[in-house]
Amino acid sequence: DTEVTQTPKHLVMGMTNKKSLKCEQHMGHRAMYWYKQKAKKPPELMFVYSYEKLSINESVPSRFSPECPNSSLLNLHLHALQPEDSALYLCASSHPAASGNTIYFGEGSWLTVV
Amino acid sequence: AQSVSQHNHHVILSEAASLELGCNYSYGGTVNLFWYVQYPGQHLQLLLKYFSGDPLVKGIKGFEAEFIKSKFSFNLRKPSVQWSDTAEYFCAVNPTGGGNKLTFGTGTQLKVEL
Predict the structure, then answer these.
(1) In this complex, which of B32, B98, B107 lies closest to A42 when CB atoms are compared?
(2) Is the separation of the CB atoms in B65 and B18 below 8 Å?
């Protein structure tokens, strides 16, 4: 079983809603990530947090707002999303965000925007 | 920027057949290499990884991969597949010395028939 826990597993939201995806890890990792995966496609990196600070933003639209309250938690705040944002959102973590550290993935949150 | 190619998008094998999935990457420097597996309805799991040393690496569930630097390849192999190996397989790379940015290939859907 993965040690990266994501909630909710499924979320349906309207285009005017505000919702959040949550992620938690207790492996002592200091880097956390958000990836987006569309059906039949590979995961695409969205954000990287290293020591609770945002270190990488892959030009993600501002309707996605990440937050890292502490070293174990990572949130993704969603507002005014579009139907094309429907996807599987994967949280991941690793030891410090240095190249080569294995990245461990959660089971994902399935998001449907209606 | 690095890129990853997986040329086999769909592979169908009978149980006990041998498996080889191709992975080629494009990057001018040194990279760390990974194979992840995603079983139906489950999260991404690490199969194996290569950082340095012996270019033949062994992973879980009888999988192995060989790094051939001159060919920029990291092909995944298994001598005898099982029905339970049915899954999506992703090759991924990240450059050494930088942030931990995994770039995934497009994936190979493997179906093993009884």
Answers:
(1) B107
(2) no
